[in-house]
Specification:
alpha/beta; Rossmann fold; 2 domains; globular
Length: 238
């Protein structure tokens, strides 16, 4: 398979999205030299995903913070959060291009990039589930970006039957923090097949965590054992 990839890459070369150097078959979106330049989220609450000042990393005697001040304000149904990057350029540009430019292959590649960042860091899981769109939103957009990311991460099509969005909601980007939590309340329903399963729940961006939390709530209600949240980026409200 690696030999075929090398041949395909020779005939149809891809280029680094930062320096435009031709990529080797095992490089994803950017070359190995540019990879460290990405806006990695180095220190954040492992429970809710809230970013913490990077300089604290050198002051802490432990590597993970599993509870923060934001955790005190909300009840989180997921067990742990994994976010790769700050929602900053070039990652934010890639996500916008995926969602609004309909660059389907970019979604798949972002999923592969996400896997390369967190390989051997995410605990064992039974199922990978992308956060679903409502049927109305799906008709308008034509695709679910989280599904494409999950596909790239998993290496095969993830199930779309285990979690449904049963309520049409306003776009979260138009709402305040308080409105976001109210907007997605009881918006999801999970299949009982998730009972006693450990779930990896995938989305593109996490901001307040409201959408992912309501999805996790539905999964827990259906009997899921543990839920790990995985996103490309973590954003904050201005």
């Amino acid at each position: 398979m690696n030999f075929l990839n090398k041949i395909f890459n020779f005939i149809f070369p891809e280029f680094c999205k930062l320096c435009q150097r031709p990529l080797s078959y095992n490089e994803i979106l950017i070359c190995n030299n540019c990879f460290p330049k990405l806006p990695f989220l180095k220190l954040y609450c492992q429970k809710c995903g809230t970013p913490l000042p990077d300089h604290l990393k050198n002051l802490l005697s432990y590597k993970e913070i599993n509870y923060c001040s934001y955790c005190q304000t909300q009840k989180f149904y997921f067990n742990k959060t994994f976010s790769a990057f700050y929602y900053k350029k070039p990652v934010s540009d890639w996500i916008i291009s995926l969602k609004f430019g309909k660059d389907f292959s970019l979604g798949y590649k972002l999923g592969k990039l996400l896997k390369s960042v967190f390989i051997d860091k995410i605990p064992a899981f039974d199922l990978v589930i992308p956060v679903p769109l409502s049927s109305e939103r799906l008709k308008v957009r034509g695709f679910n970006q989280s599904f494409l990311i999950a596909w790239g991460f998993l290496g095969k099509r993830p199930s779309q039957e285990l979690l449904k969005r049963i309520k049409y909601t306003k776009p979260q980007t138009e709402l305040s923090q308080k409105e976001r939590w109210k907007n997605v309340k009881n918006a999801f329903e999970a299949n009982l097949k998730v009972k006693n399963k450990t779930i990896l729940l995938i989305d593109d961006v996490m901001t307040t965590g409201a959408t992912l939390n309501e999805a996790s709530k539905a999964l827990k209600k259906a009997g899921a054992k543990e839920i790990y949240v995985l996103t490309i980026a973590k954003n904050t409200l201005n």
